[in-house]
Every structure is written in structure tokens, then in C-alpha cells.
Amino acid sequence: MFCSRARTSLVGEASRPRPISLWIEPLAAALIGVAVLAPAGVAEAAQTPVGLGTDAAYSVIGGVSVSNTGASTLSGDLGLSPGNASSITGFPPGIVAGATNAANGPALQAQTDLTTAYNTAAGEGPTTAVAADLAGQTLTPGIYNSASSLGLSGALTLNGAGNPNSLFVFQAGSTLTTGSASSVNLINGAQACNVYWQVGSSATLGTGSTFRGNILAMQSITVTTGVSVIGRALARNGSVTLDTDTFTAPACTTPTGTTTTTPKGTSGTANASAKTASPTGTGTAATGTPGATGTGTPSGTTGTGTLPFTGMNPLLPIVGGSLVGFGLLLMGMSNARRRRSSTVTTT
Question: For the whole model, what pTM was predicted?
Fold first, then answer.
């Protein structure tokens, strides 16, 4: 009497093709990995727009004082907080087309909004390290960082790559200094309204230079003689010093074809500027921002055009979920096949 134990097998098992269970499971794992990681990578690439809040109406904001020499002109408002009205000097001969707010509610709100904008710009990422001198470079949209200072001894070109929403944020750990006759130039849809200079201490703009973008400085801003600024000089805790300079509020064209402008008015009134839509849209649009105590009513028709990129394709979660489900199904099939192939018979 004897007992024999034999494993069931197929004739020619040694030459049988590779079992499906050996490649189904790796394939399933790979599909799950793609489904989980792909949407996350797209989301991380998105950048946060820097909102200015009420600061969009201002050309200059100071914390301690604002002083001017010569015939400087500001197309927007002038603000000072917590400093008082006596710390604003040189207007006239300087001209403020908008309202002047000092140590009042609107000025305090402007400083609050400036703090929010500064912190947003400082927290943008991922960042690209840049040399201390930006002259001679052509940069595409992104977040550019220098752990210490930033300078500009010549011309810097910002290429918007055809996207009017393209965002440029420059983070300077300490100072920002531009040389005489230096310039910031914009091409291919880049707009000054979407350029931000977050400065860890103070900024100085060189004589006769042309500067584009919004300066958000922790301390002071000095704008030397004959500078043209298409943007804003916003200082949190220090002073702003001007000398025969010109500030122009940057118009910002949206993908819908409308143009947004900062109104010029005085306290208690609001005047809106109407702009004709660009070729990408139809109709006109007008905006109105109230002064210190007045009201403004927008009018116009809505333009049409292409919606901006939001940073996340809405189909990605659906595709990712489907790939996860398919991968789990393949893994289940693999386990079932493995159990069947391990059957042992006893005779």
C-alpha cells in the first residue's frame, strides 16, 4: 500500500508560454500609479493669482511718509497709513489724478490688502533661481527667486507666450535696484498688471528708467528722477520718495476681449472708462470704482471669448478613477488565476 501525491500539470508545461499572472499584476500596479500621480502633477503646476484688492486703484502707497520733488503725476490714488496727512509732501507740484487717503479707513484697508498681496507673492511656487542681475534675459511666465538682492542694469524682456493671463512674480530676499535707463519690456501678451516684484526690504528705481509691474516692498521705495512706471509703488512699513516721475495704471486685457482700467476720480465720485473689446471678443465693458464715500455703477455689454486655463483638466479625475478601477480588476484576475494554478490532487 502506498500513497502518492502528484501536482496536476499540462503536457509540455516546460515549454508553456509565460503565465498571464506574471505580467497582469505589474501592469495593474503601473496603471494605478499613473492614475494617482498624473492629476496631482497638473494641479501642482498651477499658480495663485496675486490679488491687489483695493490697492488696484492706487499708484503709490506708503507706510511712514510719501514725499515728492518736481512735477510727478499719478494716474491713480495716493495712500498713506499709518502715517498722517502731514507726512505727504510735494503735492503740488505733484499731481494726483485720483483720491488722496491718509490715516483713514480707505488707507488702512489699502495697507491690509497690501499685506495680503505681499504674502501671496512671497508664497508663490515652485520657484526658479535667477542671477542677481536680470539684464539681457528673456523670461517666460513663472516665479523667479533670488535669496538676496535683485538688480537690473539693462533691459529685461518678459515673454507672455501668447497668454494674457501669464503671471510673472519676482521674489527678492532683500533689495531691488534698477540702473539708469534700464527697462522692463513686455512681448507676446505679457501685461504689466500681471507682473509683481516682492521685495524683502527696499527698492530703488534708477534715473530715466522704464519700469513695469507692481512693487510690493516690505520697507521703502525710492523712485529717482524721470522714471516712467507702468504699475504701482506700494510700501508696507517705510516711505515712498518721488522725483519728477510718471505713474500709469496698467490696463489689463482679459481673454474675453475686455479691457479693465483704473478709474480717475476724487473722493465722493467715481468715473469709469469704457474700452472697446479686442478682436477676440465683442461688445464693450466699463468698470467703476467708488471713491472714499461715493458710488459707481458699471455699464456695458458682456464680451465673448475663450476662457483662461484653470490649471486642472476636469476629465482627469474621471480618467484617473477609471484607470484605478481597471488596475484593481486586473489584480483580482491575477490572484484568481494564481489560486487555480496551485491546485493539488492526491491519489
Answer: 0.65
